[in-house]
Amino acid sequence: MLLSTTLLALAGLAPADTLRPKRLSLLPVPLVYYTPETRLAYGVAATATVRFRRDDDFAAARPSQFTLALAYTQNRQLLLYVPFQVFYDHNRYYAYGEAGYYRYNYYFYGVGQREVPRELFGVNFPRVRVNVFRRVGAGMGAGKLYAGLRYQYEDYRVSSVEAGGLLASGTVPGGLGSRLTGGGLGLFYDSRDNVFFPTKGVVADLSAFIRNRAAGAGMAGATTRFNRYVADVSSYRALGTHAVLAANAYGSFIAGTAPFNALSLLGGSRRLRGYYEGRYRDQNAALAQAEVRFDVYKRLGAVVFGGVGTLGDAETLLRLGQPKGAYGAGLRFTANRRDHLNVRLDYGLGRQSSGFYLTVGEAF
Questions:
Q1: Nearest Cα to Cα of residue 154 among 260, 266, 33
Q2: pLDDT digits 0-9 by tens, 183-194
């Protein structure tokens, strides 16, 4: 999620000389970002950076971060949110996730080929996502591959729908609310030379959520079950000394009946910028996108990007003849030179759609 990426990146905004290796440090920061789904969002956050005693003798051990944030948006959305990432025992164990409560509103455009004029709906939900991994391979420097477990919980309480709309009809799984619980397996591989602005390497995040349970997602409030398989892979290559080519491939495939809010999505600040998040949703989604990132002057940089995605369902895995394309450009300002952490301003264009995005960190 955009807010999670922004908050975990904000710890890098402090000047380098203030980031001495203390066991515990606290950093309060203002929180400001903009997306088509929220418009202007603003709030406060406090990040705790923790270094465990067990890692005192290992200079390459990464610090752990816990952030508490409160944000409010121009669309009258409220977010109380705690993202975290934990590294322990010389980076042998890695955990990340979030716990939060949201009072939100979204536009709904239909499911699959059953598209509708946008419907505004309100929702309140607590959400918990936890991912716990252990490095695979012998020795502290043996590599970048992690394997582990994933868990998610979300109580999606739909508070309002448009009268006469598709959600109000009760024919959309989870359209009047659902409670999602489930877990699965995961693999994570990372050979990037820099987390915030890589110039070489690969990062791959693979998931298999097995027998997720969605109470209230079926007709007449029945419980449904589904499996979900996700692959998110990005690669980076330097183009000379002042430019980088970044490429991303993403796929999400669902077997069974999932509530509409858990379906595979296209659109948003990370996947097919230029379309509203969830503008396209179905059981399956696949996406390929790329961007060129290049220096302009001192801390100022720029990007050009483009991507194409497609959807599918139980009958047709992917409808390759109905692609969704988007493209755009943006500016970057390096807020922290040591880690090359950028403030991102993008403008994306899709078919009869566009959007501005202002946040911290790259899209992928």
A1: 260
A2: 999 999 999 998
CA-to-CA separations, 95 to 3, 45, 146, 147, 149, in angstroms, rounded: 18, 21, 10, 11, 10
Q: In sequence order, what are the residues at sequence separation of 6 or more whose Cβ sits closer than 8 angstroms to the Cβ of residue 276?
A: 36, 37, 107, 109, 267, 268, 353, 355
- Candidates 263, 248, 272, 351; CA nearest to 314 is 263
For 335, the token pair is 């807020």
Yes or no: say if 36 and 45 are a contact pair by the CB < 8 Å rule: no
Q: Confirm if 229 and 207 have CB atoms less than 8 A apart.
A: yes
- SS3 of 152-215: EEEEEEEEECCCCCCHHHCCCCCCCCEEEEEEEEEEEEECCCCCCCCCEEEEEEEEEEEEEEEE
Rounded to whole angstroms, the Cα distance separating 7 from 129 reads: 16
Token digits of residue 298: 């001192």
Q: What digits encode the pLDDT tens for the residues 200-257?
A: 999 999 999 998 999 988 877 789 999 999 999 999 999 999 999 999 999 999 999 9
Integer Cα distance of 296 and 111 in angstroms = 42
Measured between alpha carbons, how far is residue 108 from residues 58, 72, 139, 225, 260 in Å?
49, 21, 49, 23, 10
